[in-house]
Amino acid sequence: MTATSDAAPSTATPLMWVAALLGLGASAESTRVHYKLLTDPAYASFCDVSATVSCTNAYSSAYGAMAGVPTALLGVLFFAGVLLVLALTSRSAASRAHASGYVLLMSAIGLLVVGYLGYASFVVLKTICLLCVTTYVAVVGLFVSAVTATRVSMSAMPERLAADLRRLFTTPAAMSALVAFVAAAAALLWSFPSDTVMASAAEPGVAEEQAVAIPPLQPAQQAELEKFIAAQQRVPVMVASEGAAVVLVKFNDYMCPPCGQTFAEYKPVLAKWAKEYPGKLKFVTKDYPLDPECNQLAPGGSHMASCEAAVAVRLAREKGKAAPMEDWLFANQPSLTPASVKTAVQAIAGVSDFDARYQATLQLVKGDIAQGGQLQVQGTPTFFLNGIRLPGLRASFLDAAIALEMKRAGVALK
């Protein structure tokens, strides 16, 4: 990009405004959806079309937040910041000439972020988030329009930025707009509910008896949960309680990203109840691999090692190694193949006869699949708490739901 005079100004184009407004709208709706997922246990997002096309899967994953801040909220701040830059630079001819250069710098950073998030969504999670894709398109639109419109050398931008900042600080209206933006951003960041579970036991390989800290629900969240639980019908789930007051059943696929997310997120909850109320909560994992090889109810897809993974955990359980086997499977989800699963179960649990026992053990997996079909399981993970079908609850909601069921069963809680 070569330097030219201000006779060919790098002004903002209509496409920049359109892209920024589109991104802001999509990010704002994403933030609303994320907020509802954290505060309403019964909420179902309109963009959860299927197991693959799902905003919930993206927002509830490890990539749904950066440094504890939801990525959707960061998107709101980014696009609002772009609009603020466009508005402030439009106030004077001198600043207007630099608008596209500033947008180019901001959108270049944005491209790096959406590239990372896109890879996480499409490759790691194997999930398509429609709202997320809309923000990706908006960032690309900003970048393309800024590249097309910029007529000045980017090496001159620091000097031009310094001059524009001096004008900004001497213009009361512009300063007021900037202060209002910073205050609004701080308020949004402060008011957004946290979904962080502080527990080292959530990490694979860490002892579950370690201390955990699960954020309690706010009164309004507790009230919504109680209302939701009271409205649900209970269905018979054929699992022996073995004296437990509460039985939590998970229909699981080891290649399903949300199954891996809940596996890690719920560990502290399960550890807490096992430690404080031993024997009162029973957690059971049922196999429901979304692999047509063993599940005729499964759609075609990329979970082509799920049947082998389910068998591997069952064989590892016989050796007392089910937990490390599950840890390994969830930690290596994106790269699982039938061959890698067989290699891993031999290394982790010493299972050397996998092929010889595969078909017989697969019949047990199919028994779980049949039960899931009777319960109208449509995807994974699907949870049942004392016969109540649960949506994808965050850890705090699950903890509170277990407490409600404990009280209902007459367990005296501390």
**CATH-defined superfamily of the largest domain:** Glutaredoxin
Q: Counting H and I runs of at least 4 residues, what is the number of helices?
A: 15
- Taken together, the total number of domains comes to 2
> What is the CATH architecture descriptor of the largest domain?
3-Layer(aba) Sandwich
Termini separation comes to: 68 Å
State the assembly state of the protein chains.
Answer: single chain
Assign the CATH class of the largest domain.
Alpha Beta
The radius of gyration over CA amounts to 26 Å
Trace the largest sheet across and list its strands.
6-5-7-8
Write the layout of secondary structure elements.
Blueprint: H1 14-39, H2 55-59, E1 65-66, E2 69-70, H3 71-89, H4 93-96, H5 99-125, H6 130-149, H7 157-169, H8 172-191, E3 198-199, E4 212-213, H9 219-231, E5 246-252, H10 257-276, E6 281-287, H11 306-318, H12 322-331, H13 338-349, H14 354-374, E7 382-385, E8 388-390, H15 395-408
Parallel strand pairs: 5-6
Antiparallel strand pairs: 1-2, 3-4, 5-7, 7-8
What does this structure look like?
By secondary structure, the chain is an alpha+beta fold. It has 2 domains: 14-191, de novo design (two linked rop proteins) (Up-down Bundle); 200-408, Glutaredoxin. The protein has helices spanning 14-39, 55-59, 71-89, 93-96, 99-125, 130-149, 157-169, 172-191, 219-231, 257-276, 306-318, 322-331, 338-349, 354-374, 395-408, and strands spanning 65-66, 69-70, 198-199, 212-213, 246-252, 281-287, 382-385, 388-390. It has a 4-stranded mixed β-sheet with strand order 6-5-7-8. The chain has a two-stranded antiparallel ribbon with strand order 1-2. Strands 3-4 form a two-stranded antiparallel ribbon. The radius of gyration is 26 Å and the shape is elongated. Residues 1-8 and 196-211 have low confidence and may be disordered.
